[in-house]
Amino acid sequence: MIRFACRLSRKDFTFDARFETESGITALFGPSGCGKTTAIRLLAGLETADEGRITIGDTTLVDTGTRLFVRPHRRRIGLVFQDALLLPHLSVRGNLTYGRWFTPRAERRIALDPVVEVLGIGHLLERSPATLSGGERQRVAIGRALLTSPRLLLMDEPLAALDADRKLEILPFIERLRDEFAIPIIYVSHAIEEVARLASRVIRLERGQVVATGTPAEVLAWQPGQTGSERFDAVSILTARVKEALPAYGVTLLAHPAGDIVVPGIISGNDEVRVVVRATGVTLAVGSPGHVSVRTTLSGRVARIDGDGGPFVLVSVALPGGDVVKASVTRLAADSLGLAPGGEVQALVKAVSIDERGLPAQRSVGRHSG
Prior knowledge:
about 20% helix; single chain; six-stranded mixed β-sheet; alpha+beta
């Protein structure tokens, strides 16, 4: 169990947050400047709280009441930042093993070979960091942090400096280390798709305070009161299972109680999948939508309609199975369709609007149309 409660005042910003979390990946989520990195720095010992207490299991790292402050190198916390920060004069192997020198021999419970295998970097061991791609450097940085045998791994926007292809390359490795090493991870990101895919728990920060905690579906979804330009940030998270891959078309069908969901890429297995659907990528229809290019049609009932008197409203559609999908539509369209709470409606989702970063490890294909 990780318990965090810290207060820190700066000239133009006050951080005052508390949360508890356990195993798996916990995501710190929120807009720039909300305090995500401040929380990471406090956990790592790179920042000192004005007042507060931090514990990991039975070990207290910070207690300002007793003036206890464990120095960063004694906390056994692994760090991965945006920049891999590899040592240029060492090989990949040298970078990987460097961090182990700071871990007492009796506490070195993670060996080199399993880390190399999970991260797929065996062919890179004798290479210089200068010869690596951005994705390869970040995998080495993750491996170096793991080989310190940390009791907690902190990842601060680890994919922010990578392009879309490199992000898709790294995400499966983060999933594997989550599943195979059983180290609690606190993951900082403002990318909804990444958080929905990786995290079991989300802590949302705003202006230095915790405003929500819960599952990705509970915390990341749009909330009443968000209107105007925030319609572009409104998302729904739907849970489905792999039904059938269609390699000839480069898509996969996911089974959902409200109807099949078509997503880009080929996903194997029948595991549960979270699909992030942006409200601006959903079209509503009353009755049969007829002949359209969109292949995903989800049947449900209007649960609520929210608006601020402007040109757009956000329609929440309750689906069989308990999920809710949001659609951003004009007030003109809502009135023309006669939308009202309780009414039956079809939610049409274009596959091209679904970001692959939110989907499990897959073989991506070109994206063309709905």
